[in-house]
């Protein structure tokens, strides 16, 4: 039996989810800022609200909806990134406004174009309430989008956010034609760097090696369908951040996340060398080639030491 779902944010991913769940027989309505209507109007009589807005829009949307949120209505967050002002994940922003709402996270290797085409994919629904995650796992899975569950929403979000930064770095590597060895090394060290943030925010190490961590990293860092990867390629070709953004013509979360991660690192004493070099490139303080050189010339250390 279908459930009633409201999808907030109709970019590539939000529109894809709206169409897919509609095809499954659910009653799905959507809202975007371009519609000119109020998202408050969609809240009544829903079984689930899905937030697929860009990270920059989460805080204001949460503040707008909080006074009208129906008691017990679950929210499934699909936003991947860190808020640059509050240095928080999407569900941390939502929970500040919706203290009693059940919160879930959807993440994983889910390139919207492939999912929209019906190609096989898997993702994870994360929630502190395992029964809640399992309930929506059963209701939202289908034969081409297989959903798993975990009980680590913060780790799931951290992994999904930081992999965008590593995808920018991977695009730079490919744009410079550095080869397979360099890219494999970069992604491996990038995974370790994601782990620093994930564990520092209280996430579970196992999440790093699951769909939201390694799975999403492999997809995003190796596909021209990824905006963050394309951003990195354009940076390597000599574009500025603004020029790359204009060429892509869609939200690229990696740059904002890299800056937010560095601010968190400064507060918490984390060492995030790849994030640091990505930000230096984005801000024009170094070149892509010089950033690679700086990473290669770092002090030698054991492999399993903080990034």
TrEMBL record:
Write out the GO cellular component annotations. cytosol
Is Lipid biosynthesis among the key words of this record?
yes
EC class: oxidoreductase
Residues binding sn-glycerol 3-phosphate: 80, 108, 163, 216, 226-228
Task: Give binding positions for substrate.
Answer: 80, 227-228
User: Where does the protein end up?
Assistant: Cytoplasm
Q: Known EC number(s)? A: 1.1.1.94
Which Gene Ontology BP terms does the record give?
A: carbohydrate metabolic process; glycerol-3-phosphate biosynthetic process; glycerol-3-phosphate catabolic process; glycerophospholipid metabolic process; phospholipid biosynthetic process
List the catalytic residues. Answer: 163
One short Pfam name that applies is NAD_Gly3P_dh_C
Q: List where this protein forms a coiled coil.
A: none
Which residues take part in binding NAD(+)? Answer: 112, 227
Q: Residues in domain Glycerol-3-phosphate dehydrogenase NAD-dependent N-terminal? A: 42-132
Residues the record lists as binding NADPH: 13, 33-34, 80, 112, 227, 253
The keyword NADP belongs to this UniProt entry's keyword annotation: yes
**Sequence ranges assigned to domain Glycerol-3-phosphate dehydrogenase NAD-dependent C-terminal in this UniProt record:** 152-292
Pathway connected to this protein: Membrane lipid metabolism; glycerophospholipid metabolism
- For this protein, what reaction is catalysed? sn-glycerol 3-phosphate + NADP(+) = dihydroxyacetone phosphate + NADPH + H(+); sn-glycerol 3-phosphate + NAD(+) = dihydroxyacetone phosphate + NADH + H(+)
Keywords carried by this UniProt record: Cytoplasm, Lipid biosynthesis, Lipid metabolism, NAD, NADP, Nucleotide-binding, Oxidoreductase, Phospholipid biosynthesis, Phospholipid metabolism
Please name the GO terms that the record assigns under molecular function.
glycerol-3-phosphate dehydrogenase (NAD+) activity; glycerol-3-phosphate dehydrogenase (NADP+) activity; NAD binding
Purpose of the protein: Catalyzes the reduction of the glycolytic intermediate dihydroxyacetone phosphate (DHAP) to sn-glycerol 3-phosphate (G3P), the key precursor for phospholipid synthesis.
UniProt similarity note:
Belongs to the NAD-dependent glycerol-3-phosphate dehydrogenase family.
| Name the record gives this protein | Glycerol-3-phosphate dehydrogenase [NAD(P)+]
């Amino acid at each position: 039996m279908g459930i009633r779902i409201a999808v907030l944010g109709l970019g590539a991913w939000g529109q894809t989810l709206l169409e897919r769940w509609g095809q499954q027989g659910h009653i799905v309505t959507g809202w975007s800022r371009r519609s000119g209507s109020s998202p408050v109007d969609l809240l009544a009589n829903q079984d689930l609200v899905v937030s697929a807005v860009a990270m920059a829009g989460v805080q204001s949307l949460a503040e707008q909806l909080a006074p009208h949120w129906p008691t017990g209505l679950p929210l499934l967050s699909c936003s991947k990134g860190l808020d640059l002002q509050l240095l928080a994940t999407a569900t941390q922003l939502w929970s500040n406004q919706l203290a009693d709402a059940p919160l879930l996270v959807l993440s994983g290797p889910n390139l919207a174009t492939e999912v929209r085409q019906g190609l096989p994919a898997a993702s994870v629904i994360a929630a502190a309430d395992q029964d809640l995650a399992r309930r929506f796992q059963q209701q939202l899975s289908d034969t081409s989008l297989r959903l798993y569950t975990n009980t680590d929403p913060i780790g799931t979000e951290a992994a999904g956010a930081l992999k965008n930064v590593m995808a920018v770095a991977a695009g730079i590597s490919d744009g410079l034609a550095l080869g397979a060895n360099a890219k494999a090394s970069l992604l491996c060290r990038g995974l370790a760097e994601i782990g620093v943030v994930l564990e520092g925010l209280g996430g579970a190490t196992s999440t790093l090696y699951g769909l939201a961590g390694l799975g999403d990293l492999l997809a995003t860092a190796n596909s021209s369908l990824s905006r963050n990867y394309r951003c990195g390629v354009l940076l390597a070709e000599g574009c500025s951040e603004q020029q790359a953004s204009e060429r892509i013509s869609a939200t690229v979360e990696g740059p904002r996340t890299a800056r937010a991660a560095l601010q968190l690192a400064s507060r918490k004493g984390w060492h995030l060398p790849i994030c640091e070099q990505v930000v230096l490139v984005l801000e024009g303080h170094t070149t892509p080639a010089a950033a690679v050189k700086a990473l290669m010339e770092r002090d030698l250390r054991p492999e399993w030491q903080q990034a």
